[in-house]
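Students often ask what a holo structure prediction actually looks like on paper. The answer is less mysterious than it sounds. You provide the chain, you provide the ligand, and the output is a string of discrete structure tokens encoding the 3D arrangement of the protein together with pyridoxal-5'-phosphate.
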Amino acid sequence: MTARVQESFHVSANVAKMQASSTMMAMQKAVEMRAAGIDVVDLGPGEPDFDTPEHIKQAAIEALRAGETKYTPTAGTRRLLTSIIGYYERNFGTRFDLSEVMATAGGKQAIFNAIVALVDPGDEVLIPKPYWVTFPEIVVFAGAKPVFIETEETGFTLTAEQVKRAITPRTRLLIINSPSNPSGRVIPPDEFRRIMEVATEHGIYTISDECYLQFVYPPAKVWSAATLPRELRDRLCIAGSFSKTYAMTGWRIGYAIAPREWTSAMLKVQQHSTSNPTSIAQRAAAEAFDGPQDCVAAMLAEYSRRREWLIGALREIPGFRVLEPEGAFYAFPDVRGCLRGEVKTSAAFVQRLIEEAHTVVTDGAGFGAEGYIRISYATSLERLQEGVRRIRKLAEKLAAA
Ligand SMILES: Cc1ncc(COP(=O)(O)O)c(C=O)c1O
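The corresponding structure tokens follow.
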């Protein structure tokens, strides 16, 4: 029976073109090593090491007790949607209409819905490098073509000029992620505005992935594309998430804010795939936005402490070059200065690090930046220090070879 199924099964053309997630692979490797009893330092995950704040958990418990365990409207409960609207109005001074907002199962589903609802085969989608691994894969799944924009010359910060140069008559969509995973770089608001002017001039749609919105370090400031004037937001979808800001990765809750025609199309995708995000998670998310924000400030202060230590320590490693990450919780050093002998690529460096030093980081090649590695500091300072000690040992060994 199984043999016959295997013979007749062949994966669809669109899915066959997709790559497995390199960040998930790093996570899996750490799990396997830990199961084998190895003392692994895992600097792979893009996941806060904090627990979800207590008042948010309590809201979910209350929702359960109150029997909020049924389907909700596809777009999400009115309670959550008004919380999202209120949050943007309070923080960014823009009032969105209910028809422009929808709740999703994580920021990832917001991005999935937005892409699938917009692009056709043959369309080109601009994705600046380095990119979050999921962007090009969804584009490929939707049958469109990712077109990558090199940004190394501008320190991994996208400019309007670079966007202009990449536009062709087939360009349909631009995906921006600031603060960026993996580089931590932040596009200055003035430049962001110029990018949106170029996109608007050419009738190109934009997704602004703002999943790390609240995690920025001075002098960078919290900023959302929601603050742009209306005429620059006519073709803009904001993808947001509760995962990072409130340490809620497992709850699977996020949102999209877009012009109503776009959200209506996204709702169709959601209606026929996941229906609605979990009712209980929606109540928790509403509390996250409406409730006290000191939990966010506390997490940011801790990330900030780790970041400061980490950047200084990485800059002392021979062969490493480190750009200042202005946001998120990653460092993205250029390790090409360490590549020699059999260790010719960042993938080989990462592999060596796992095998010899039992330390997991993520290969930059998966983010479109060969020669770089991503180090997550969403882990305790003690583990971070141990991990960096191990990384340094390997780098010194390679430098001496
Ligand atoms: C840049 C970026 N966007 C979106 C997401 C999606 O997060 P979630 O689906 O958990 O909201 C992530 C998660 O790692 C991310 O790094």
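Residues 46, 106-108, 132, 177, 181, 209, 211, 241, 243, 249, 254 surround pyridoxal-5'-phosphate (CB under 6 Å).
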